[in-house]
Amino acid sequence: MSRETEKMSSSPQDSNAGAAGGTPGSNQKTLQVWSEPLKPEDQKRLENPSTTPSGPVTISAAVSTIKKEDFGNIAQMPCARGGLLTGIASGATVGGLRFVMRGNVGKAANWAVGFFLLGSAASYEYCQYKRRAERIQMQRTIEVVAEKKREQAKKAEEAKQKREEERKKAEHRWYKFW
């Protein structure tokens, strides 16, 4: 598919990239815009992401895709920052409350770690869900705009043909020399 990159203004917390050059600044984010509608195989993959053409995904296959560099670039990954901050806040809150209520440091730490993992995963997945929904909505919008452009071009062509016919009729003489 051909892609066009479009920059839109947004709040600084929506930004997922940094500094200068061709990358978005602190108040911009980059959206990928597809100029073609979804192909049927892409649509099926979006509807059922748990399987790939080669079969179901296993945990070992998923773990094998993780690289050491991924941990260094975690701040640039979409939704990772928000997910981690939500996890930290939920873990600290639940762990602190558990410590104050029960007074057992070990159990409070276990609850804090558990809610950190739960809060991080839930926030990350919700953010990814919103991104997928936004991408699908953008694709629908592009399809609607493309359809409207086709309709306008068709109407303009019909109007042009009608004007040409009227011009020919106006030039046609009602009398005839022999």
Give the helices and strands, then pairings.
Elements: E1 3-9, E2 28-34, H1 40-47, E3 51-52, E4 55-56, H2 59-64, H3 68-72, H4 80-102, H5 105-171
Antiparallel strand pairs: 1-2, 3-4
Write up what this structure looks like.
With 178 residues, the chain is mainly alpha-helical. The protein is built from 5 helices and 4 strands, in the order ββαββαααα. The protein has helices spanning 40-47, 59-64, 68-72, 80-102, 105-171, and strands at residues 3-9, 28-34, 51-52, 55-56. The strands form 2 sheets. Strands 1-2 form a two-stranded antiparallel ribbon. Helix 4 (80-102) runs antiparallel to helix 5 (105-171).
Oligomer: single chain
The overall pLDDT, averaged over residues, is 79
Strand content: 5-15%
The secondary-structure element order is EEHEEHHHH
Strand order of the largest sheet: 1-2
The gyration radius over C-alpha positions equals 28 Å
Q: What is the number of beta strands?
A: 4
For the largest beta-sheet, the strand count, sense and barrel status come to: 2 strands, antiparallel
Task: Give the N-to-C terminal Cα separation.
Answer: 63 Å
How would you sum up the global shape?
rod-shaped
Helicity, as a percent range: 55-70%
Q: Which stretches are poorly predicted, pLDDT < 50 over at least 5 residues?
A: 1-24
Task: Please give the count of helices.
Answer: 5
Helix- and strand-based class? Answer: mainly alpha
Function: Involved in the assembly of the cytochrome c oxidase complex.
InterPro entries: Cox20
Keywords: Membrane, Mitochondrion, Mitochondrion inner membrane, Transmembrane, Transmembrane helix
Organism: [Torrubiella] hemipterigena
